[in-house]
Amino acid sequence: MFYSGVLVTANPGELEKAVQSVEGKGLEIYHRDPDAERFIAVIEGETIQSEADLFKDLITLPGIQNVSLVANLEDTEEEQQ
C-alpha cells in the first residue's frame, strides 16, 4: 500500500467546497488551516500508479487551486511484521 500526504490549497473563499471535493474522492482530511484556506489530506493506493492518478485528478476538482506532495510512504508487508 502506498500513502502520500498532500497539501491542498483552496480557491479564495472555497475551502469547504475543496474539502467536500477531496472527501468525495475518499481521501481523509487530517488538518485544516482556514485562515490560509488549505488543508492536509492523505492519498492511499494499492499501486504507485493508482496513487499518482488520484494526485493528478485532485487539481481538477471544484474549489481546488493547488495540490503539493508533502510526504510519500510505501507500507510493505515486511514492515508490518
Provide a descriptive summary of the structure in words:
The protein is built from three helices and four strands, in the order E-H-E-E-H-E-H. The chain is an alpha+beta fold and 81 residues long. The two termini are 14 Å apart. The mean pLDDT is 93. Pfam families: NapD. This is Chaperone NapD. InterPro entries: Chaperone_NapD_NO3_reduct.
Question: How many domain modules?
Answer: 1
Total count of helical runs of at least 4 residues: 3
Separation of termini?
Answer: 14 Å
Q: What share of the residues does DSSP label as strand, in percent?
A: 35-45%
Low-confidence stretches: none
The CATH architecture can be given as: 2-Layer Sandwich
What is the CATH level 1 assignment?
Answer: Alpha Beta
Total strands: the figure is: 4
CATH superfamily grouping: Lrp/AsnC effector binding domain/regulation of amino acid metabolism (RAM) domain
Mean pLDDT: 93
The major sheet is characterized as: 4 strands, antiparallel
- Shape category: elongated
InterPro entries: Chaperone_NapD_NO3_reduct (IPR005623)
Organism: Mesosutterella multiformis
Protein name: Chaperone NapD
Pfam families: NapD
